[in-house]
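Predicting holo structure, L3FJYLFB bound.
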Amino acid sequence: MDDSDEDQRLPHHREPKEYVSLDKLAELGVLSWRLDADNYENDEELKKIREERGYSYMDFCEVCPEKLPNYEEKIKNFFEEHLHTDEEIRYCVAGSGYFDVRDHNDKWIRVWVKKGGMIVLPAGIYHRFTLDTDNYIKAMRLFVGDPIWTPYNRPHDHLPARKEYIENFLQEEGGGQAVDAAA
Ligand SMILES: CSCCC(=O)/C(O)=C/O
Ligand SMILES: [Fe+2]
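Done. Tokens:
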């Protein structure tokens, strides 16, 4: 993403544009699938993901003024940088939106999730969400067991989920420490 403070709903590409591969996202623990959103009720691929990853809970969240209670406040809160103590799993069945995640250098990567896109943000990753200029998303929310939606706004580095995230995804091999060889 660029560093501009312009409308959060704009794409915010860098100039020239830079793209991040799905492999790079996976290195940050961010997983994604492309699914058939017109068939989510009978989709065997979705069923398999849910079974393998234990996503027993499911509901829908529609983000638009007519459907989301306290819309303005929620939009503001979604865009505050935060983490969760569990995975955030969203499957876009209609509309679109941006999930921004921090990379290894603490820079934002903007992930545009459109109809059919499913994304998993790992526990402990700093992130935020905004609608794009189409102003609408309908997302399936999945969870392992009873859902906990609590956002912990940055900084919450002392939480075990954050420490585990750093250990699993941000630390280089060998703890990232330089080794001085002495003769
Ligand atoms: C598209 S679902 C709304 C965003 C959300 O639930 C969340 O937790 C963002 O971080
Ligand atoms: Fe979140």
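The pocket of fe (ii) ion (ligand 2) is lined by residues 82, 84, 88, 127, 151 (CB under 6 Å).
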